[in-house]
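Appendix B, example 12.
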Amino acid sequence: MAFGKHATSRYSLVELEPATGRMHQLRKHMAHVMHPIIGDRPHGCNKQNKLFKEQFNMNTMLLHARHLSFIHPETGVAVHIDAPVQAEFSRMTATLFSGLTY
């Protein structure tokens, strides 16, 4: 699917794993390598964000934390959290990637 002024605009679904717990690490890194996350207002591409809002009525960021793990700072117990995919994320992946769902 191509939008915008470049006929070669493309969108990718990627799996990222943060190396640290730094705030906005994935968002900043993806913007730095010129692959911003759709819907990311401070770090993303305003033209693409506007397109997605107008074309697809989407006003959320296409970023999902599927699984988080950490050691609880007081108890020392390992904590594992799994989160279901947000409906808007599923709708957009289906729209962009021909029925790809999670």
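The helical segments are 25-32, 46-56, 87-96. Residues 1 and 19 are 31 Å apart (CA to CA).
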